[in-house]
Amino acid sequence: MIKKLCLTVFACALTFQSLSAQENFKLMFYNLLNFPLEDAVPNRLQYLELVLDDYRPDLFMVCELNNVNGANTILSSLQFINPDYQGATFELNTSDDSGSNQNDLQQLLYYDSSKFILESQNIVTTIFRDFNHYRLRLNSVNQNTNPVILDVIVCHLKASQGSTNQNLRLQMVNDLTTYLDTFPVNSNIVLAGDFNVYTSSEPAFQELIDTANNNVIKFEDPADRIGSWHTNSNFIDVMTQSTRTQTGLGGSTGGFDDRFDFIMTSAFMNSNPELTFVPDSYDVYGNNENFQCYNQEINSSDCAGADFSFAIRDALYNFSDHLPVTLELQTNQSLSVNEILVEDAITIIGTNVVDETLKLKVKPSLENNISLSIYNSLGQLVKTVNAKNSLITVDAASFANGIYYITNSKFQFEPLKFVVAH
Q1: Residue 83 half-sphere exposure toward CB, CA atoms < 13 A
Q2: What phi and psi, each to the nearest 5 degrees, are found at residue 172?
Q3: Is 94 helix (H, G, I), strand (E, B) or coil?
Q4: Would you give the distance in Å from CA 38 to the centre of its chain?
Q5: Cis (ω within 30 of 0) for the bond into 83?
Q6: Beta-bridge mates of residue 121
Q7: Judging by beta carbons within 10 Å of its beta carbon (0-12, 13-18, 19+), is residue 340 exposed, middle or buried?
Q8: Given this model, what pLDDT does residue 15 score?
Q9: Quick check: bond before 242 cis, omega within 30?
Q10: What is the C-alpha separation between 275 and 212, in angstroms, rounded?
C-alpha cells in the first residue's frame, strides 16, 4: 500500500509539474570585438565556443560583428551545440557618421528556433549606427489564439567621453524613442547593447528610463544598479569592461572599471506573467564580483571567485575586451514541444537493476540537446544529467536503494524506470 501511494504521489507530482511548469529563457548580449577581422589573438573562435557551450543562451545578441562570414561562422558553432539555433538575416549598417564609415560594426540576433519564431526584422537608422529590431513569437501551444510577442532590439551607441559624444548618444536614443512611440504600451521589449554610458545621469540613459514620463515605452534596469558606474568600485558587480590591461590584443585596455553593456526590459515586463524577467537573474558572465578585480585583468587571480572558473575567465579575456551580460525571462505559457517515444529518446544499456553505475544511450540527434532529470519514488529530484554524448554514464553509488525515474521537460515521454540495489 505504501509503495502504491509513493508511486501515486510521484505521478501526481509529474502531472502537476507539467501543468504548472514555467519555462525560463536564457539571454546573453556580447560585444564581439570586431569579429572576425580582429586577429591579434589567434584562433579566437575557440574561446567564444567555450563560452557559448557553457551558458547555452536561448537568445544570443551581439554587436561588433564585421561581416556575413563571421555571422555564419558563429551560427555554425551554435548549431554544433544545438541544431535548433538559427540566426536572423545579417544586414550591413545603414547609418553613418560624418567622420568615418561604421559599416564594419553590425548587430545580430541568434535564437533557439524550438522556443522562438522570428516573425520580422527591421532597422532603425540614426546619425551613427543602426538599431536592429527583431520581432519574435513564443513557440507556445496557444500561439495561434494567444500569441506572445517579444521585440528584441540590439544596439551599439557612440563611444568615448565628452559632451559631444554624450549628445550623439542622446540623438541615437531619441531616434529609437520616436520609433517605439508607435508601439503599444503593453509591449514586451528587450533592449540589449553596448551603451558606452559612464553614468546613469547621462541624457541618453535618462531618455531610456524616461524619468520625465514622456515616452510610450519606458525601460528598466533588471539589475537595479542605477548610479555613476565609471571608475567606481562600488559597482564592480555590473562592470563589463575592460577585461585587459595588456596592450596589443585589440580593443580597450585599462582593466575592469566600466559598465558599458546592458540588457534592459520594457516596464511592462516587470509584471507580465506571460513574459517577465526573472528577479535577480541579471548577471555579468565572468564577473565574480570580487572587489580586488577592480582595474585588473579578468583572468588574474584578483578576479577569482566561486561562480566563474579561470578557464571561463581566460576564454573571455582572449576573445573580447568586454564581458557578456545575461538575463533570464520566464513565461507561464506551455511551449510546443516535440513528441517522441521514450524508446526513441533514451535507452538503458544492459539491465535496469544497477549497483553503482547506470549506462544510457541517447538518440544521436538529441546529443547536446537534452537534459535528463532523475527522480526517486517520492518525486524528489536527485540528479540532473546533460547529454553531451550519445553514451552516458550515471554514477548511482550514492543513491539509496529503490526505484528511480528518468524524464525530461522538453521531450514528452513516460518516465524511464530503473532500480538501485546495492
Answers
A1: 5
A2: -65, -45
A3: coil
A4: 24
A5: no
A6: 134
A7: middle
A8: 43
A9: yes
A10: 26
Q: What is the dihedral of CA 419, 420, 421, 422, to 10 degrees?
A: 170
384 strand-pairing partners: 373
Whether residue 386 contacts residue 397, with contact meaning beta carbons closer than 8 Å, is answered with no
Q: DSSP secondary structure string, 239-285?
A: --B-S---SSSSS--S-B-B--EEEEEEGGGGT-TTSEEPTT--EET
Q: Which residue has the cell 546573453?
A: 28
Long-range contacts (CB closer than 8 Å, 24 or more residues apart) made by 13-21: 13/375, 13/379, 14/375, 14/379, 14/407, 14/415, 17/409, 21/334, 21/409
**Residue 117 parent element (H or E):** strand 116-124
- Residue linked to cell 528584441: 152
Structure confidence by residue, pLDDT tens digits, 134-189 = 999 999 999 999 999 999 999 999 999 999 999 999 999 999 999 999 999 999 99
Are the C-beta atoms of 297 and 310 separated by less than 8 Å?
no
Cβ count within 10 A of residue 333: 19
pLDDT in tens, 198-237: 999 999 999 999 988 999 999 999 999 999 999 999 999 9
Q: What DSSP letter does each residue of 137-189 carry, written as one string? A: EE-BTTTTTS--EEEEEEEEPPPS-SHHHHHHHHHHHHHHHHHHTTS-TT--E
Residues of the chain with pLDDT under 50: 1-20, 339-343
d(CA 75, CA 110): 7
Eight-class DSSP state of 322: B
Q: CA 346 to CA 367: how far, in whole Å?
A: 11
Helix, strand, coil percent values for the chain (each to nearest 5): 25, 30, 45
Q: What is the DSSP letter of 389?
A: S
